[in-house]
Specification:
By secondary structure, this protein is α+β, with helices and mostly antiparallel strands. The chain has 6 helices and 19 strands.
Amino acid sequence: MERLQKVIAHAGIASRRNAEQLILDGRVTVNGKTVRELGVKVSGNDKVEVNGVPLEKEVPVYLLLYKPRGVISAAQDDKNRKTVRDFFPEFKERIYPVGRLDYDTSGLILMTNDGEFANLLMHPKYEINKTYVAKVKGIPHKGILRTLEKGVKLEDGTTAPAKAKLLSLDKKKNTSIVELTIHEGRNRQVRRMFEAMGYPVLKLKRETYAFLDLRGLGTGDSRELSPHEVKQLRALAETGKVGSERY
């Protein structure tokens, strides 16, 4: 379910603000009934008309992008910086990222025009695992890794249990590569976790999202998700299972 003004905006009829005015002016109907309230939500099964003209439903789009560093995870940017949307000029649909990756973080990010799908994956109660590989300053010992796994105290609370693994180290440069799997979506969470432990992140990449990975893709490359992958993501978010297997 999505707010009516958002559905109208996504259909390209008007901006979100102008869509709200259309509703207030009584120019929008849902299933034949005029709606004048902004809090109304509709589903894909509802018939929405603006000035008597039915909205054309966009074909759902589901994409996987290997986001480079130095790219904004947004559909547009008021500072004219490059955004993830810029990698899909061939799509007329209004697509946007599912969640965010920091400007300086590369890796896997999903794109869609399906708001219900995006909200499902981003909802805090659904624990979707995301694996990051971080190059950090310093070489964390086993105690540090255990703390990362048990939970790190941040200003907005202690992080949920995670998985941490030391992949490699360079004693001469005093750096190491650490893999960290989390299921929360706090702002700059991975960087903040390492910084709180005294190991600032030098480079960060998201390697996986649920069962999806970057195999076969180079930086800036993308591919469409298969219908089966979309179905599996929905099932995973709702039940914690992929098919008959526990994720």
